Amino acid sequence: MHSSPIDLQTQRKLEQLFELLALPARAIAPKMRVTLAPCHLMIEAGAMGVTLALTLIERRARTERWLPLLLQTCAPEWSLGIPVRACVAQGRPMLIATPPAASRLQAGEWLQCLARMRRLLERIHTEHQRDSRDVGDTGDTDDAAESRQ
């Protein structure tokens, strides 16, 4: 999506979204980045709509193993009809929601979609931490643990 002017309705929805996320008030810009630990939320807004990309902050080894789970979130019923794509970028699982500009969806529905995306990424984060502790307890490295599988 190219940076273009943000229409007033989209600007208001983003302001409401920040309020619902309990984030400090901020000026709405075409590109924004917010930390929602353990995730980063990257927002790109313009005349064509909004892109809400949520990714884990930390890079992880073998993150691609989570791709099948991430892809299940691309079903419209999971995301309240908001198109969601999933990928692994630079060792980080990422979910990307694209509510269309012309839709009747409100900031509350954007928040519900983001909350579902965040819960899934938090689950991956927690599972990876548990896996890391288990590997650390046995003294294995990622390579040694992977060779046993």
Account of the protein in words:
The chain is α+β, with helices and mostly antiparallel strands and 149 residues long. It has a single domain (8-148), classed as Yope Regulator, Chain: A (2-Layer Sandwich), CATH 3.30.1460. It contains 4 helices and 5 strands. It has a 5-stranded antiparallel beta sheet with strand order 1-2-3-5-4. A hairpin with a 2-residue loop joins strand 4 and strand 5 (92-97). Helix 1 packs across helix 3 (107-138). The protein is globular, with a radius of gyration of 17 Å. The termini are far apart.
List keywords for this structure.
alpha+beta; Yope Regulator, Chain: A; 5-stranded antiparallel β-sheet; globular; Secretion system apparatus
| Multimeric state | single chain
Percent range for helical residues? 25-40%
Characterize the overall form: globular
State the separation between the terminal residues, measured CA to CA.
Answer: 41 Å
Mean pLDDT over the residues: 84
CATH architecture designation: 2-Layer Sandwich
Bin the strand percentage.
15-25%
| Total beta strands | 5
Q: What count of structural domains?
A: 1
> Number of DSSP helices?
4
User: What name does the CATH topology carry?
Assistant: Yope Regulator, Chain: A
Radius of gyration: 17 Å
Strand order of the largest sheet: 1-2-3-5-4
Give start-end ranges of low-pLDDT stretches: 137-149
CATH class: Alpha Beta
Q: Please state the structural category.
A: alpha+beta
What about the largest sheet?
5 strands, antiparallel
- Provide the succession of SSEs: HEEEHEEHH
